[in-house]
Amino acid sequence: MAMSSILNAADIKKALDAFAAEGSFDHKKFFEMVGLKAKSAEDVKKAFLVLDADASGFIEEEELKFVLKGFASDGRDLTDKETKAFLNEADKDGDGMIGIDEFVALVHE
């Protein structure tokens, strides 16, 4: 499944363009701009499955670095600092990974 089947392609492009500069990524603004925040928990879970590249049931730090590529192939890689900040915000149980429920809570916060 592609992210474009869940979200509007124009919104994805606009959000990726807004955070194109290294160090500019803000997950709250990004999820709002792409329209994910307004989606149902079910749709957010579908987005999680797209981002969970190895289908482990978790988004690990290495996958998180490439999270923008999950929205569009020309998305940039997050910097290490952005990746760690994103993980720290989302990882509520401290296991070093983002589970599906943590992801839904993060998107809807």
TrEMBL record:
Family annotation (InterPro entries): EF-hand-dom_pair (IPR011992), EF_Hand_1_Ca_BS (IPR018247), EF_hand_dom (IPR002048), Parvalbumin (IPR008080)
Chain residues that bind Ca(2+) 2: D91, D93, D95, E102
GO cellular component, one term: cytoplasm
Pfam families (alphabetical): EF-hand_7
GO MF assignments: calcium ion binding
Domain of life: Eukaryota
Domain EF-hand: 39-74, 78-109
Record key words, sorted: Calcium, Metal-binding, Muscle protein, Repeat
Ligand binding (Ca(2+) 1): D52, D54, S56, F58, E63
PROSITE patterns per record: EF_HAND_1 (PS00018), EF_HAND_2 (PS50222)
Family membership noted in the UniProt record: Belongs to the parvalbumin family.
Function, in words: In muscle, parvalbumin is thought to be involved in relaxation after contraction. It binds two calcium ions.
Identification of the protein by name: Parvalbumin
